[in-house]
Amino acid sequence: TMEEGVIVGWLKEEGDAIESGDTLAEVETDKATMELDSYMDGVLLHIAVKEGAVPINGVIAVIGEEGEDWKAALDAAGTDAGNQSSAKEEETVADTAAPEEVSTAASAPEKTVTPSDDNRLKASPLAKSMAKESGIDLSNVKGTGDQGRIVKKDIEAYLENPPAKSTAPAAAPSVPAAAPVAGDVDIPVTQMRKTIARRLGESKFSAPHFYLTVEINMNEAIATRKRINEIAPTKISFNDLVVKAAAAALRQHPAINSSWLGDKIRQNGNVNIGVAVAVPDGLLVPVIHHADMKSLSQINGEVRELAGKAKDKKLSPAEMQGNTFTISNLGMFGIEEFTAIINPPDACILAVGGIIQKPVVVDGEIVVGNQMKVTLSCDHRVVDGATGAQFLNTFKSILEDPIRIII
Questions:
Q1: Active site residue: 209, 253, 290, 380, which one?
Q2: 111 pLDDT more than 50
Q3: Cβ contact 358:371 at 8 Å
């Protein structure tokens, strides 16, 4: 589904000897920042794109034998001179960049750094990003990469074994200077955000959405979850119950577990539920395959593992593909009700709100009920209103009597 990737930074320089398996660069895809490894031995003769976006199948570098004519290799690959001119322009920009930028972009040799020389620390872009997210001072991290460069594994090692905190008294705070006037901030659009904008824009404006909302009494679900968690080694969440109930309902209503393919509608044989996970750059949807055949504890374990990978940008493509239905749960954020945009190629997505205590009428009397609203977004090309309503009624009846998904 990608159209381009972004070179974040190179860990090797022109002229370096390369062995198969060496990490060459870090690449930002639409889902994660990944390390690009070499598949061959040789010498890094030329870097065509030092930083920035590259279309799929674009040439980013030439690896060959020492002294080999890399320009001929580029010509043989059908690459025009634009790559060479853009690389020269980037070198010029690097020469005039701020010191921190030069440390990662310029190809000139860098001096040996000391902990106090913070703005000249050599670190890969991914390591810098990880350090910033974790609040780590890079001057405290020992680099094991080329020429002492701090790489991803150094940050991971630091997080696993952080140094002991000093017991020395903190310095007295200085008098703050007058706050500057806040200005506008332009944030570059990441590959992930570009993909979200493109895919959901296509979905919203090509698939005719309609929405069905139902309110579910969660009293029995709360009581059942409590009993399960008293004896089960794995603590089951309400989201696990929702995933399992949706999977069971999808098996009974295959029209909801369908995809629009233009000239045909495919009723998917497997029930693979995507679970939307919020990450700093946007949203990822890892997939629970064969969810209808898995126990609550299995679903719990997979969701936890995949959500952790999503937040660490370590999901593999296989773990994000094959969804036939998607669930987006914002209940933990205090959201009572919302609508979601369909996640292609699914025909439907279920938006799950929080469990809210409110007065309800039971047998003619007003009592306190634990109510949860869910909204099903449907692609009207595939699903009609009555079909969606039947699925929601089944889903509601399962959660109001959850013993049906346990036995």
A1: 380
A2: no
A3: yes
- Tell me what percent of the residues of the chain surpass a pLDDT of 70: 84
Q: What rounded mean pLDDT belongs to the chain?
A: 83
- Clarify whether 380 is annotated catalytic: yes
Answer whether 0.70 is exceeded by the pTM. Answer: no
Contact between residue 396 and residue 264 where contact means Cβ atoms under 8 Å apart:
no
Cα–Cα distance measured from residue 29 to residue 291, given in angstroms and rounded to the nearest whole number:
28
pLDDT at 174: 60
Which distant-in-sequence residues (6+ apart) come within 8 Å of 66 by Cβ?
A: 43
